[in-house]
Amino acid sequence: MFFVLSGFLITSILFQNRNNLNASKGEILRTFYARRTLRIFPIYYLTIFILLVFHKYTGTNIKHDFIYYLTYTSNLNFLLHGHWDGILSHLWSLAVEEQFYLIWPWFIIFTKKKYLFSLISMFILIGVSSHIIMSDFPWGAILTTSCFDSFGVGAMLSWFIFYNKSALNKFYTLVKTLSLILIALIIFGNLVLSKNYWTILPLRTANSIISIWLITYIYLNRDSNKGVFRFFLSSPILIFVGKISYGIYLYHNIIPQFSTILIESHLIKSSELLQWFFKLPYSTLSFNSILVILISWGSFKIIETPFLKLKKKFVPNKKESNTG
């Protein structure tokens, strides 16, 4: 869902810039990369440099493999060495995302409008093919090409919204039907056949189709008065979590490593009450969850927000009329 949502949002931004802004292709690319840099780089690089300084306490190979984290290629590091890297393992997906950013804007901006649907379809096929080709390699699924299907499925929704909105409901009906079939096959494959390879369609592709069904449903009903939209999707709590979600993603694997050291070396020794608390079921999970949220919120307010405010300096010039 992370990749599908990213493919949808990033492609929508690029389509909007391509269609509604009076700017050169070079200006659109510059503003895109500037805004992505301001969003992603600050806390990422702050995090990996802090971890490099305290590498002895991380239980990872960050000192030896730092170049991979510096260049957003940790997925290639895991692929080459055939193992994860502890609390930094989740960064493979951010590496894939950044590698996707390197090529996708160029395709979207420089491809003629009449070929965009074919382009997106080609990327989906590349993703599916990469899964099939790499199926005998345990780490093939973390190659960027193996994620093109997810990005492409998200981009397809964006294409319908911008260039074929009259067929959007048909698209929704199609992905809904496919999703229900795939869910049934997944349940049958796991419960009856007891294996994941229940069809020639890769599992990530199936998950991507199911994800775009949910995302399309939300898009089509975003102005609805249905309870789920009024009370859940518009919930201040959910919006708050959404704002700090990048920090939650980045820190959620890392913070428990250091909080465990803090708990065992200081907190438990300092208080009998804390000793009692940390013996309770799920106490450590609860403590770490609260800690991750607090640190992510502090990160958003103190570090991310000042950089996000700079994004307004990178907006292509608007033009008076809309053209394709």
Describe this structure in words.
The protein is mainly alpha-helical and 324 residues long. The chain has one domain (2-313). It contains 15 helices and no strands. Helix 1 runs parallel beside helix 7 (148-163), helix 2 (25-53) packs across helix 12 (245-251) and helix 2 (25-53) crosses helix 15 (283-309). The longest helix is centred in the first third of the chain and has 29 residues, at 25-53. The radius of gyration is 22 Å and the shape is globular.
What is the secondary structure topology, with strand pairs?
Blueprint (H helix, E strand, L loop, with lengths): L1 H19 L4 H29 L12 H5 L3 H8 L9 H20 L5 H18 L14 H16 L4 H24 L11 H18 L6 H7 L2 H8 L1 H7 L3 H16 L1 H6 L5 H27 L15
Helix pairs in contact: 1-5, 1-7, 2-5, 2-12, 2-15, 4-5, 6-7, 7-9, 8-9, 12-15, 13-15
SSE order, one letter for each helix or strand: HHHHHHHHHHHHHHH
Largest sheet: none
Low-confidence stretches: 320-324
- The whole-number mean of residue pLDDT values reads 90
Record field, number of beta strands: 0
Gist?
This protein has helices at 2-20, 25-53, 66-70, 74-81, 91-110, 116-133, 148-163, 168-191, 203-220, 227-233, 236-243, 245-251, 255-270, 272-277, 283-309.
Defining key terms:
mainly alpha, 70% helix, 324 residues, 15 helices
